[in-house]
Specification:
The complex is a heterodimer of chains A (about 240) and B (about 425). Chain A is of the alpha/beta class and about 240 residues long. Helix content of chain A is about 30%, strand content about 25%. Chain A starts with 13 loop residues before the first strand and ends with a strand. With about 425 residues, chain B is an alpha+beta fold. The chains are: A alpha/beta (about 240), B alpha+beta (about 425). Bound molecules: adenosine-5'-triphosphate and magnesium ion.
Chain lengths: ~240, ~425
Amino acid sequence: MSTAAPDTFNGPIIDAEDLWRTYEMGAEEIHALRGVTFKIDKGEYVAVMGPSGSGKSTLMNLIGCLDTPTSGTYVLRGKVVSEMDDDELAAIRNREIGFVFQTFNLLPRASALHNVELPLVYAGIPRDERIEKARQALEMVDLGDRVTHKPNELSGGQRQRVAVARALVMNPSILLADEPTGNLDTATGQDIMALFDRLKEAGHTIILVTHEREIADHAQRTIHIRDGQIESDERRTS
Amino acid sequence: MLAAFRRFASRHHVLFGIWEAMGIGLQGIRAYKMRAFLTILGVVMGIMTVTGMSSIVAGLNASMARQIATLGSSTIYIRPFKPGEPVTDEDFRKAKGVTLDEAKLIADQPAVRYVAPLQVIFADSVKYGPERARDVTVIGTTENYMEVHDSFIHRGRFLTRLDVNRGARVAVLGADIMDSLFPYQDPIDKDITIDGRRFRVIGVLERKGKFLWESMDNLLLIPVNSLEKKNQRFNLMVADLLPISPAHIDQAVDQTRGAMRRYRKLKYLQKDNFAIFAQDTLTDIYRRITGGIYLVMIAVSSIGLIVGGVGVMNIMLVSVTERTREIGVRKALGATRKDILWQFLTEAMTLTGAGGIIGILIGGLAAFLINTFSPFPAVIQTTWVSIAFVTAIVVGLTFGLWPAAKAAGLDPIEALRYE
Ligand SMILES: Nc1ncnc2c1ncn2[C@@H]1O[C@H](COP(=O)(O)OP(=O)(O)OP(=O)(O)O)[C@@H](O)[C@H]1O
Ligand SMILES: [Mg+2]
């Protein structure tokens, strides 16, 4: 089990201040987020909950630097992301963010190993080192014996574990998971949640979107969103 | 070497993407073999045309050069007109054949070694007993013919000065004529008839083979003085000459021209009423013809490449749409616009490059088969093959640009949501 990168940065990993995200639909404006403010510290495990259409995915896209806020400031590990251009955002996504999607989003024609290699490719890491790291990441999610398998030769849970390995291979600051168990049966979902617990133990910072209470209970902090605003932000001290 | 390049390439982001994308491009080709092949068919045809045709033209050029050399490498020709130049009716009227006196005068020029006047007529039939040869070129000439044309005697003897001076009715046969008139006998001292006139065979020339596709052995040589006068009205006499050395070609041409102008009393501003040229003129004319072939080749292959390029653009647009989600994923994992752009450009170039290689292989095979099984020689031209291959890549780059830019510009969130 690898540990998170040694980090000299002391402030909060995420410092979001009054984030707004407005979509223009013709003449109509849709405010998907209306002034969201929160901080997340290193090593936290946070669940984001809320009804459908409340703005959870929009928030995750902002945190993951796939999108920039209409207004407000977003500071990621001391860097002001909300003012970055395309290429800088791509570099941040590559180094700081690990995505896990509900629909896995693996490249169908590539092997598990090659899928996990991808972020290393865009980081410009030499081939031998890439293969080594990708193999290690797959071993960490207990798929050391499935490296050459294509996604359609793997079960749903295995596919999601490949996706987790891919998200972790660059050793990012945050692991973002938008309903990672949404396409899995309960038992397989539990496996993935156990994996997340292990990652939390190892020091990773995790933000996870879910509809299910039991899933959210794995996290130590739950942010509830309703109509684009934070309704509650509770920490459990267990 | 390759390993070093790999190391360099993987340090440098963009270059790395090329290996990546080449692999992905080949995967795409493997996944949709038929579609990919049809798409690049135009490119294949275009490149095939360039490879095949340039090989054939180059082969012809080389064999032309070789065959011109067998004509006698420094032979100079005196003709009524320069070949390949337009001739007006007036030119025709003014043109005068070379006379035997002029031939003697030319032979006296210091840079000239031998002169062979040639009176060419076409005999309808040449007979020996029941055997006959049709449409034979009969050349009235002198004993110098052998030297000037690099010919050799296969059997018997050649014309002598005595034969020529006496206008003896003797003939030397080309190999083809011997084949048709004397399939089973020795021709020496036999009497043949040329359009009804009897000639005695004194020798047979060594076989020269073909010049391009025309036999050079379908001829018959007789002393120039033995020709009937009436024949000389129809065909002007010409002359071929040999300079004292290949280095004296220009001098020989100049001296001969001067001598002929003086003899014909041409004034300073009057044009020559004859033409003198060396072999390089022949080669030039030939080059002009093959230049035309090159133009046709470039036109045909351009059409192929444009059709192929549009096909590639099409398949790439489809591919970008089909793989929208993949593009979103790649962007989420840290791919920049430039990375995506390069990926799709390289895919397009891999497609057309593969088309180029297939085209080169087919064109090369065609050239090989033509060289082996047809009378045309063909030599594969590395220059043209390289140009063709680079062109194929450039076509991929050009026609891949729009689809690649489209892919690079996709919004990652939209792309990830694409069903
Ligand atoms: N590209 C877009 N254009 C216009 N409106 C959008 C766009 N993306 C999201 N929205 C709107 O923003 C609001 C929040 O959407 P979001 O996807 O964040 O919801 P969510 O909380 O993730 O919902 P779910 O639980 O169903 O996934 C919704 O009203 C949605 O219709
Ligand atoms: Mg959502």
